[in-house]
């Protein structure tokens, strides 16, 4: 007899399938029929768990954002400078490992899909606040209009783009390794903070 999943487990399964497919396709190209088929359910049943295609896409892209925040969270027992480095090591590794999915996450936001923009902005804000804490400025973490918050937010975009471009090169053609990229990003952060 086939084991029936609870509603919550089925939703998790469907989101997990979407995350797997997101590795090779942008969010708006995920096929609801293919996802339902992989889960062994009908398209109609998928819409029992998610009222619309948009609701499903929001659930998948939100899970992607939470995953990024989770895997880049540094060990809190480390000194702040080492927490920053550990976060960047994980951030660069995440982008390199999941480059197509990460690009679809960024481009979904850049393409103006309101749900993607919102999730991307929340994820970026979470990373920015974390970095502000690591550099000893937790008091401005909730002040998105402060010059320091804006500077860190922009630096994160620079680091993200650098990691995306670097990870897109064949390994033999990369001008440096991941450690050099991280050293450079940290140096750029310290330089920016002096301006």
From TrEMBL:
UniProt keyword annotations, A-Z: DNA-binding, Transcription, Transcription regulation
Protein name, UniProt field: TetR/AcrR family transcriptional regulator
DNA-binding region: 31-50
Domain HTH tetR-type positions: 8-68
Annotated signal peptide: none
Record keyword Transcription regulation present: yes
């Amino acid at each position: 007899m086939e084991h029936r999943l609870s509603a919550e487990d089925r939703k998790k399964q469907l989101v997990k399938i979407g995350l797997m497919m997101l590795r090779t396709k942008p969010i708006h190209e995920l096929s609801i029929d293919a996802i339902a088929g992989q889960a062994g359910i009908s398209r109609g049943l998928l819409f029992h768990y998610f009222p619309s295609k948009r609701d499903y896409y929001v659930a998948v892209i939100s899970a992607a954002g939470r995953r990024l925040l989770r895997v880049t969270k540094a060990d809190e027992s480390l000194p702040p400078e080492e927490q920053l480095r550990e976060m960047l090591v994980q951030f660069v590794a995440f982008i390199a490992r999941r480059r197509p999915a990460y690009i679809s996450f960024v481009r979904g936001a850049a393409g103006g899909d309101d749900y993607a923009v919102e999730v991307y902005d929340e994820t970026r804000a979470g990373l920015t606040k974390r970095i502000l804490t690591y550099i000893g400025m937790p008091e401005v973490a909730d002040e998105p209009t402060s010059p320091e918050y804006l500077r860190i937010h922009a630096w994160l975009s620079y680091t993200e783009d650098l990691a995306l471009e670097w990870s897109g090169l064949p390994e033999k053609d990369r001008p440096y390794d991941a450690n050099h990229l991280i050293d450079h990003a940290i140096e750029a952060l310290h330089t920016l903070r002096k301006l």
